[in-house]
Design goal:
β12, α10 and β13 form a beta-alpha-beta unit. The chain is α+β, with helices and mostly antiparallel strands and 529 residues long.
Length: 529
């Protein structure tokens, strides 16, 4: 397998302002499926940190009182106690919009102030494009005296309420308010990666580039600046300790760190024209798809993103697209709901027109029938290339907010037939195939140890298995739940169609507010990323 066939080259990354390596080799990457698994591992790793070690993190939302395990510690206890032990604790959290708008300004500020009081330094970061956010979810743990223990966590899981769910999908006892269709404790499906090896150095660089950027933290936000001055908030990042050398090789995985930064003024020092390697990385991988693209995504909207999949489906007659999405948007309301729905409807219609019999969009419920909110951002192409990150499949994530994903190629071939499903000579790879299978085993109620994978390996058989299971569960519901519940948790996704007069205003609202474009003007005009 030639790495340049799948990964972006330095020229394709198109951001010489960054010191990020093109990709790294010799890594060990482990998927942590569900917030409970991630939080438990994070507690174990942070509690081992000692004086002089580093704990750096970025987040979209952080709830100080979120319990990491059923009996604690909370997020603030975990990080504050590390700072009190002499660990160098540094964090960047998006300043966020007001709580009154269903965001998390006060929670993020409280987490910042509590960790700072314990000796750490956590800054509220508003260096974003207007209407944008910092959406990266990253924790980097360095041990300068013992680099083999270095580890980083990156993916879709915030350090906040609603995320600590598990495979049973009963929801987090500490929920975020959402659409009532998800119940009082919304079930939550999500994925994070644990990464060891040289990639930890690349992720450390990602944090350091943002931390040392000279742009003011309250960029173009005079009201936030005034509030910070009145509260005595820290607006000047202190110097970071010297960056340790990259950890030694620890596994067979090549990792390319993909990011989104918008084009902003003043410019980011590390991305003067922005960075759109998330969009470019997915585009390169999807162009190589031949048999199966598997997605899990919170949104899956934007005609620009859908067009990428539609072109691939038209060009490759054996290619199937399987996507798992939330059944309902996370918000309700006469004004908020329609823009959330119209973008996905438009995107799915585009894909369906390209290949109506090869596009399979599904949603998830728990065994009680409560829908599960899919927050994961996962893509697996032909069981070769896999990506997990913070970015959704929409224009906002690919151009406008800050995002962070890790694409993984495994040196280890998977010996189970078919050994080369795409027929390009790359061969199925253990990491990508096993990630897809782990997710499908849960969604289909199959043996978690892989004892029932016989019809999930070949792409055609796998598509037949997943769609027939979803249709059987749908028929059971339509029959009034008569008889035993069929195995599996997937159902065909059937979004509600909006009336024409609602689409008339919802579509421009979606394009301008919910899914804005952060590309430079020349890229917009050229239709490129």
């Amino acid at each position: 397998m030639a790495m340049p066939d799948w990964f972006l080259s330095a020229q394709e990354r198109a951001n010489p302002g960054s010191e990020l390596p093109v990709w790294t080799s010799g890594n060990l990457v482990e998927p942590l499926i569900h917030g409970s698994a991630y939080f438990d591992r994070l507690v174990s790793e942070v509690e081992q940190l000692r004086e002089g070690d580093h704990l750096f993190f970025t987040d979209w939302r952080g709830d100080p009182d979120q319990r990491m395990r059923p009996d604690g510690p909370t997020v603030v206890q975990l990080f504050a106690q590390a700072a009190q032990r002499g660990v160098v604790v540094k964090g960047l959290i998006w300043r966020s919009h007001l709580d009154a708008l269903a965001y998390s300004e006060e929670e993020n500020r409280d987490l910042s102030e509590a960790i700072c009081a314990a000796g750490g330094e956590v800054l509220l970061d508003q260096r974003v494009r207007r209407g944008g956010s910092h959406h990266q979810k990253l924790v980097v743990l360095r041990h300068p005296g013992d680099p083999e223990r270095d580890i980083a966590f990156a993916g879709g899981i915030d350090l906040c309420h609603s995320r600590r769910d598990d495979a049973a999908h009963g929801g987090d006892p500490q929920p975020v308010a959402m659409s009532p269709r998800y119940g009082p404790h919304p079930p939550w499906h999500d994925v994070q990666l644990a990464l060891r090896g040289p990639v930890v150095g690349a992720l450390d660089t990602t944090f350091r580039e943002r931390w040392t950027d000279p742009m003011p933290l309250d960029s173009e936000n005079p009201m936030a600046y005034l509030r910070d001055r009145l509260r005595g908030s820290d607006l000047s990042p202190d110097p970071l300790p010297d960056q340790p050398a990259d950890p030694p090789p620890s596994g067979p995985h090549h990792v390319q760190v993909l990011r989104t930064y918008p084009a902003v003024r003043p410019r980011y020092s590390f991305a003067p024209d922005g960075e759109r390697t998330v969009a470019r990385g997915y585009t390169k991988a999807v162009h190589r798809a031949r048999r199966l693209i598997y997605l899990e995504d919170q949104y899956l909207w934007s005609t620009e993103v859908a067009d990428l999949f539609a072109r691939a489906l038209r060009e490759q007659p054996e290619l199937h697209l399987v996507a798992v999405v939330p059944r309902h948007p996370d918000v309700d309301g006469r004004l908020a709901l329609p823009p959330n729905m119209v973008g996905r409807a438009q995107a799915l219609e585009l894909c369906n027109r390209a290949a109506p019999d090869r596009v399979h969009v599904l949603d998830v419920e728990n065994h009680e029938g409560t829908p599960v909110y899919v927050h994961a951002k996962v893509c697996v192409v032909d069981d070769v290339w896999a990506s997990v990150g913070s970015d959704n499949f929409n224009r906002r994530s690919w151009t406008h907010d800050s995002e962070l994903s890790c694409a993984v190629l495994d040196d280890t071939r998977d010996g189970r037939a078919p050994t080369d499903p795409a027929g390009l000579g790359d061969g199925a790879r253990v990491f990508a195939r096993e990630l897809r299978l782990r997710l499908w085993r849960e969604h289909l109620d199959r043996d978690p140890d892989g004892g029932e994978d016989h019809d999930l390996l070949d792409p055609a058989d796998a598509v037949a298995a997943i769609t027939s299971a979803a249709e059987a569960l749908e028929r059971w519901h339509e029959s009034g739940r008569s008889g035993p519940r069929p195995p599996g948790r997937l159902r065909p996704h059937r979004p509600e169609r909006l009336p024409w007069h609602t689409r008339l205003w919802a579509l421009p609202a979606y394009r301008l507010v919910y899914d804005p474009d952060g590309r430079p003007l020349r890229a917009r005009r050229a239709g490129t990323w």
